[in-house]
Amino acid sequence: MHVLILGGTTEARRLAELLRAHRAVRTTSSLAGRVAAPRLPPGEVRVGGFGGAEGLARWLREHRADAVIDATHPFADTMSSHAARAAADVHVPLLALRRPGWAPVEGDDWRPVDSLVQAADTARTLGRRVFLTTGRMGLAAFAHVTDAWFLLRSVDAPEPPYPPRMEVLLDRGPFTLDGERELLRRYGIDVLVTKDSGGAATAPKLTAAREAGVPVVVVRRPPAPAGVPVAATPEEAVAWLLRTGQAARS
């Protein structure tokens, strides 16, 4: 059984590791190529785009893929849409692997928004020293904000356009609670901007913000494509895949 894993996420790597124990399953992990030195999963790996939904459908046919698991970042909605169209065209089963989103707890001051543009407009009303943890993609939404200073944390250095008053902190999670507390204190952060990515690797910043009384602008995640089943963990994805394989053989 040949499975295409669309990913680059922690969940995608864990899924490839779990499937390595199943000798009847061959995996190809596809990485977008946006990170200079990605952490590679076991199994076959390809890097780069497919050329839209049509290119992905062509790849699925040419490589005789039996299933697709979309384990991309929760905000990679364009890739998820292409995967849904391609899988439907080729009649290949598709699963979306999505880590659960975060939920506020008592003491949190969250300001939910639907886009990075809204996040930029909201953040500037809440503070003047912004900890921006939405990654280096999409910084153009903040480029017009001249009355706030930004601390951007990113794996790789950003490219313009971006805010004129900005410092870049190159780092990769997981992050510790003590480290996030110190970062907020050292830079005098008074507002945090993040996407609802979920997961434990970057969650300590939310606890640190709650303790410091710092408001958090949270960009809501887009939904999975209509009609695509969703698994919350790599283990659930493996179970789905094995059921799919058994159904195909019966």
Provide a short characterization of the protein structure:
With 250 residues, this protein is α/β, with parallel strands linked by helices. Helix content is 33%, strand content 22%.
In helices, the fraction of residues equals 25-40%
In terms of structural class, how would the helical and strand content be classed?
A: alpha/beta
In total, the number of strands is: 12
As laid out across the biggest beta sheet, the strand order is: 3-2-1-4-5-12
Low-confidence stretches: none
Largest sheet: 6 strands, parallel
Which features does this protein show?
250 residues; six-stranded parallel beta sheet; elongated; alpha/beta
Descriptive account of the structure:
The protein is an alpha/beta fold and 250 residues long. The protein has a 6-stranded parallel β-sheet with strand order 3-2-1-4-5-12, sandwiched between helices. Strands 6-11-10-7-8-9 form a 6-stranded parallel β-sheet, covered by helices on one side. It is 33% helix and 22% strand. The chain has 7 helices and 12 strands. The longest helix has 16 residues, at 234-249.
Topology, please?
Elements: E1 2-7, H1 10-19, E2 26-31, E3 44-47, H2 52-62, E4 67-70, H3 77-90, E5 94-97, E6 110-113, H4 116-126, E7 129-132, E8 149-154, E9 166-170, H5 177-187, E10 191-195, H6 204-212, E11 216-219, E12 230-231, H7 234-249
Parallel strand pairs: 1-2, 1-4, 2-3, 4-5, 5-12, 6-11, 7-8, 7-10, 8-9, 10-11
Helix pairs in contact: 1-7, 2-3, 5-6
